[in-house]
Every structure is written in C-alpha cells, then in structure tokens.
Design goal:
globular
Length: 212
C-alpha cells in the first residue's frame, strides 16, 4: 500500500510543483482533492480516535470531502485558490510546530488550522491569485513529492501523515526539509517562467472552464 500510494503521490507532487499555474484548471481541483482528503481523514481521526487512514471510515470520509473540494475548485476557480492557500497554511503551520519538536496532536492540529485561516485571509485581502497559485502549488506539490519518496523507501508510514506531510518530512530528517525547499524553489521558477502564457479569468467566482 505504501509503495503504490507513494508512487501516485510522487507523480501528483511533480505535476503540481512544476505546472501548478500553467495547468491550474487541473492543478487546483487536484490540490483541492488532496486538501479535502486530508481534512476528511484527519477529521475522522480527531472525532473517533482512530489512527490516520487506519479504518475504512477514514478513507471514505477523506474521499468524499476530497471530491467535494475538487468539484468546488473546478466550478469556482477562486475557491480552488483558497484551497491551495489553505493547504499551504496547513503545511506551514504543522511543519513549524514539528520543527520545534512538539508531538502534541492538539497543538499540531491548532497550528495547522491557524495556518489555514491566516493564509486564506491573506489571499482574500491581497487579491494576487497568480502568485498565490504559484507559491502554494509549488510548496504543496514539493511536500507531496518528498512525502511520496519517503513512503516508497519506507521512511514513513501512512499513519504518520496524520500530523501533515510537512511534519512527517521534518520529523524524518532536516535533509528532507532542505530537499523540500529546493524542489519548491525549482517549481516556483518553472511556473514563473511560464507565467506570461497563462491568463486567469477576470470573474473571480466564475467557473474554471472560463479560463480556456
């Protein structure tokens, strides 16, 4: 399971990291699904006390919430921007707490939630969707990429992802944190190089298809 899941996560991470903006119509729903899947699965863990993705209910909840988030991202592209920002905020929040050595599940949960609120709020206030998409997809995609590699080589287990993919990478080694940063930076540069070829919809709450 870890090998297959790891390979799929690597492919998804590569796609989102380097092509988040040029193919944002596809990238945002994918990131929305990932974000929603994590929210659903982690929520089930918090409510029922089960291990992360250790029960069928966790997988079902993650899949259902993920599909809902993906559909919202597809039909209302700016919602996808919020989900991308939320995913980034969660990654940074949980990663910062884990970097200071805390293993409190509640503290990690609160940090992730606070990160979501802060990044979504900044997205709404600053209104710079192009750069929000570039930064959030590059960092979130790089996090998926590193996590997939760790899963493939049995460095982490699926259960360890309950605290967030960033926390899992940081807990494993600072080397993977550096690798994560390098991958994210490369992704940002690739997306910035293709920025002029992308035209986002003028209507903030219009459908994603309007960009085609």
């Amino acid at each position: 399971m870890d090998l297959i899941g790891g390979i799929l996560i690597i492919l998804l991470g590569l796609f989102i990291t380097v092509a988040g903006l040029p193919v944002f119509i596809l990238a945002l729903p994918l990131l929305g699904f990932f974000f929603g899947f994590f929210v659903g699965a982690a929520g089930t863990e918090a409510l029922f006390g089960d291990g992360f993705l250790s029960t069928v209910s966790g997988w079902i909840a993650g899949f259902v919430v993920g599909v809902i988030f993906a559909l919202l991202s597809w039909f209302f592209w700016y919602v996808g921007v919020f989900f991308a920002a939320g995913a980034l905020g969660s990654l940074l929040g949980t990663g910062i707490v884990e970097a200071f050595g805390s293993d409190s599940e509640w503290l990690i949960f609160i940090a992730g939630l606070l990160g979501i609120v802060v990044l979504v709020g900044l997205t709404l206030v600053l209104n710079i969707p192009t750069y929000i998409i570039i930064v959030s997809t590059a960092i979130a995609g790089a996090s998926l990429l590193i996590t997939g590699i760790l899963l493939v080589f049995n460095q982490v287990e699926f259960e360890e992802l309950g605290h967030g993919t960033a926390a899992a990478a940081i807990e494993e080694s600072w080397f993977w944190l550096i690798a994560w940063g390098v991958a994210a930076a490369i992704g940002m540069l690739c997306q910035i190089a293709m920025k002029n070829a992308v035209e986002l919809p003028d209507e903030r709450w219009g459908t994603a298809q309007a960009a085609t």
